[in-house]
Design brief:
The protein is an alpha+beta fold. It has helices spanning 25-34, 74-81, 102-114; strands at 13-20, 38-40, 43-49, 54-60, 65-71, 86-89, 99-100, 118-122, 129-132, 141-143, 153-157, 162-166, 173-175. It contains three helices and 13 strands. Strand 3 and strand 4 (54-60) form a beta hairpin.
């Protein structure tokens, strides 16, 4: 049985979202790679300023999460969860891991490789109530009517209830 549409030919190998301890994304990712477990940790580079200097620093795109491509059998899950910093594999109510689609992973990879400016979006849908958090309209509340006028390509990562987009000032709104 194969649960994903990739060409890995592993029985029941799927992409899953792994929750990790705070600021352990890189540590857990490296340990899983040493164990031979395929991972995907999308990152962004931001300018950080300290008192005495400025520096470009790499941060995980989804703080507290990384993606693991592994069989869903209990032994493989235990191997993943034994990695330093691993907390749990995101799952549905019955305890079986929630699968992240290959399409979502491939779209995220394409966005990461594009070199475009990346913004992180709250998981919004048309009709959601939103609040403006920055700019001249700060504090105004309203409804999200159309995203198309913003000329944005958005990839929803359903399992994390988050979305990623390219070229928009998304940090100016929040879901109410």
């Amino acid at each position: 049985m194969q649960c994903c549409s990739c060409a890995c030919n592993e029985p029941a190998a799927c992409w899953m979202a792994l929750r990790v301890k705070s600021r352990h994304e890189f540590i857990t990712n490296a340990e899983l790679a040493r164990k031979g477990i395929e991972t995907f940790l999308p990152t962004i580079t931001k300018l950080r300023q300290w008192k005495d200097r400025k520096k470009m620093v790499e941060f995980p795109l989804f703080s507290g999460y990384l993606f693991v491509h592994s069989p869903v059998d209990p032994d493989a899950r235990v191997a993943v969860l034994k990695a330093r910093g691993a907390v749990n594999i995101i799952s549905y109510g019955g305890g079986s891991p929630a699968v992240v689609s290959d399409d979502e992973i491939n779209a995220l990879r394409l966005i990461m490789e594009s070199g475009q400016q990346i913004d992180i979006y709250p998981h919004l849908h048309e009709g959601d109530r939103i609040r403006v958090t920055k700019g001249a309209l700060k504090g105004a509340e309203g409804m999200l009517i159309s995203k198309e006028s913003n000329h944005v390509f958005v990839v929803n990562v359903e399992i994390l209830s988050r979305s990623v987009g390219v070229k928009i000032l998304a940090d100016e709104v929040e879901k109410v």
